[in-house]
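step=encode ok
step=design start
structure_in=
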């Protein structure tokens, strides 16, 4: 018999069978074409680092256990972002979950215009190299530049961003995948203005619409139900609306140039988690210079504390379908070209 989760502010989740609780972590395999790339329907076999040459800027990003570098695949003349992750010291289960999660989910999600494109991957010298399309920047860096230049991200750019990420979340739900780490650093902008969701090494599978494990968490973007759980017993249970909450926090941060849970009095991560659980959800202030009623309502609908009251990335009876919100209607969003023009004229230079 599975252990029973204690009650929380979000209801009694009930017993979670072990087979379900670890469903995510046991699904990952090494199936698929290793040491190969697929670029514009052309396959390249036996790929190694010798088939690439470094490009500038070389370092595109760094994470806790990985680094993203810029290379050109010589045979196809394609500039790529190579995510390098060392797995030599990991046990077999960790290797499957921490290294191949990104690969498997990107394969499963291949073809959507708002999800980063996977070309393939290869392994050598105890490292996995995940080869993806290179984008111009991420919205975390755009936010930094906006703070430096003292400018706001236009409401219509935010509408385009929210439309793109919401569209990606709808596709994830359709494929029974949950991202679990939606934040500005994982929202990428391409040179032509396309917006894509990236970094799936923290993602997981949905089982009967729920996720039963939570190995990685960025607390300042995490939904209350992810924080209010017994992590030691690994009994987290939440659905895809956790990603919707993270989108709401990210949108509010990008709109105001300040994280909604930031505080000078905050000395530890525990204080941040306490704020998320105890305080009313943050809102876009009506006195804010960039205030827009539709933007404010979109954020408010994302940041409902009760996950059952949040917008849902699927048409479902009794739930507010996220793609129907006025803020991300076709009248509000910009074309990719206009987003690229804004970035090149206002942010890049």
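sequence_out=
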């Amino acid at each position: 018999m599975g252990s029973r989760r204690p009650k929380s502010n979000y209801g009694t989740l009930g017993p979670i069978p072990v087979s379900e609780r670890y469903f995510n972590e046991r699904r990952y395999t090494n199936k698929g074409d290793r040491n190969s790339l697929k670029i514009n329907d052309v396959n390249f076999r036996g790929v190694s680092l010798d088939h690439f040459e470094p490009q500038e800027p070389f370092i595109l990003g760094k994470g806790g256990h990985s680094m993203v570098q810029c290379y050109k695949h010589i045979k196809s003349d394609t500039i790529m972002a190579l995510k390098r992750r060392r797995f030599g010291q990991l046990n077999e289960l960790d290797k499957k979950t921490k290294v191949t999660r990104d690969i498997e989910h990107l394969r499963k999600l291949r073809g959507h215009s708002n999800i980063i494109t996977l070309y393939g991957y290869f392994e050598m010298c105890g490292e996995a190299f995940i080869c993806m399309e290179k984008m111009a920047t991420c919205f975390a860096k755009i936010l930094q530049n906006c703070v430096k230049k003292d400018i706001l991200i236009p409401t219509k750019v935010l509408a385009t961003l929210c439309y793109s990420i919401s569209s990606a979340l709808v596709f994830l739900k359709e494929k029974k995948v949950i991202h679990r780490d939606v934040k500005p650093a994982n929202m990428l902008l391409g040179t032509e203005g396309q917006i894509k969701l990236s970094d799936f090494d923290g993602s997981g599978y949905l089982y009967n619409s729920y996720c039963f494990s939570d190995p990685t968490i960025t607390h300042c973007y995490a939904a209350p139900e992810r924080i209010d759980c017994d992590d030691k017993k690994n009994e987290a249970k939440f659905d895809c609306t956790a990603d919707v909450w993270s989108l709401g926090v990210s949108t509010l941060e990008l709109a105001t140039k300040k994280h909604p849970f930031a505080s000078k009095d905050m000395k530890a991560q525990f204080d941040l988690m306490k704020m998320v659980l105890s305080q009313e959800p943050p809102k876009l202030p009506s006195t804010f210079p960039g205030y827009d009623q539709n933007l404010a309502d979109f954020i408010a609908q994302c940041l409902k504390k009760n996950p059952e009251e949040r917008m849902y990335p699927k048409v479902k009876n009794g739930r507010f379908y996220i793609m129907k919100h006025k803020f991300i209607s076709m009248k509000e969003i910009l074309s990719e070209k206009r987003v690229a023009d804004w970035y090149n004229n206002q942010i890049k230079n």
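step=design ok
step=annotate ok -> The chain has a mean pLDDT of 85.
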